[in-house]
Amino acid sequence: MDLNHKLNRVVARHDELRAMLSSGGPMDAQRFARMSKEYSDLEAVVESINALRAGEAERDGLVQMLADPATDAEMKAMAEDELSVLEDRLTKLEQAVKIALLPKDEADAKNAILEVRAGTGGDEAGLFAAELFEMYRRYAVLHGWRFEVMEVSENDVGGMKEGIATITGANVFARLKYESGVHRVQRVPATENQGRIHTSAATVAVLPEAEEVDVHVEDKDLRIDVFRASGPGGQSVNTTDSAVRITHLPTGLVVIQQDEKSQLRNKQKAMRILLSRLYDLERGKLDAERSAARKSQVGSGDRSERIRTYNFPQGRVTDHRIGLTLHKIEKVMLGEALDEVIDALTAEDQAEMLAELT
To answer: How far, in Å, CA of 2 to CA of 104, rounded?
Structure first.
């Protein structure tokens, strides 16, 4: 199917949806919501298509002017200049339309649950995990997103064993989904008195936050245990059984929440995390089936894959999936330059999908 035929189908579907939504005919709320979302999603695509076609019509007019023997030399020179600029704009418009037509990840518009865990490297790994957690918090603030800490487990030196947060805002998962994997750090630890560079790691998981309609969990599949919350070193931090452990029996997934003094709040938090992990598990199965033949590692979400190295002595950050190196580690850790990495990963992923469509 050529591009023009695809564009005609998109415009026709957009017109069809507009007619059905404005007809006032009988329609249940769920179908109306589904059609409204599809219409809204197509709106920007159709605007790009209209801009492309207007540009193509303008180009055709300039070509006709240049071919017309009656056009004087001065007008031809002006037409040639305009055509040169227009051709460049049309190339960009066509690329934008192609990207808009790519299959959408339904989870892109969702909020995300961020999980950061210390990996190999002892105390230094814990310190690095805490810095990554803070990097994402700062990145969220820069984008106007809400960053809600769900659980933090600290180590004895001010680092982090594990940190979980919910990030809420527009297209959060679309921006952060490429962050899942092993992040490696190379630097001289504060405790190293001989100046030797150590390598340690932390694991990042970014899950789309599931809604109740995304995952159906039956009560019989859950075991919920309550117990007394404890702090570092095992000391009691609460005199009531407020901590909650939820086990999803079919998969063996376990979530523990004890940050809140309220048992109900801990249970609600634990269910949010559990539903998102189950949703991510299901997405992983579907992605594996869809992309068995696809070799691209961008956005694979494999938690065991080493995706990025932060080299502090050399001041550089390297993303191994696309071979991108930025010599601005301080700005990356502040969240300020993280978009440069994410934009490059997004562009690479789009290029892979565009190649598959041609």
So the answer is: 20
How many Cα atoms sit within 13 Å of 349 on the Cβ side? 20
The angle formed by the CA atoms of residues 13, 17 and 22, to the nearest 5 degrees, is 150
Contact indicator for 163, 193 with CB cutoff of 8 Å: no
Angle, CA 345 vertex, CA 344 and CA 347 arms, to 5°: 65
Q: Read out DSSP for 179-225?
A: G-EEEEEEE--TT-SS---EEEEEEEEEEEPPPTTT----GGGEEEE
Cα–Cα dist 312/197, whole Å:
9
Strand 181-187 versus strand 160-168 pairing type: unpaired
How many whole angstroms separate alpha carbon 342 and alpha carbon 140? 13
Residue range 183-223, pLDDT digits in tens: 999 999 876 767 788 999 999 999 988 876 668 888 899 99
pTM here?
A: 0.70
Enclosing H/E stretch for 165: strand 160-168
- What would the pLDDT profile of 328-342 be if each residue is shown by its tens digit? 999 999 999 999 999
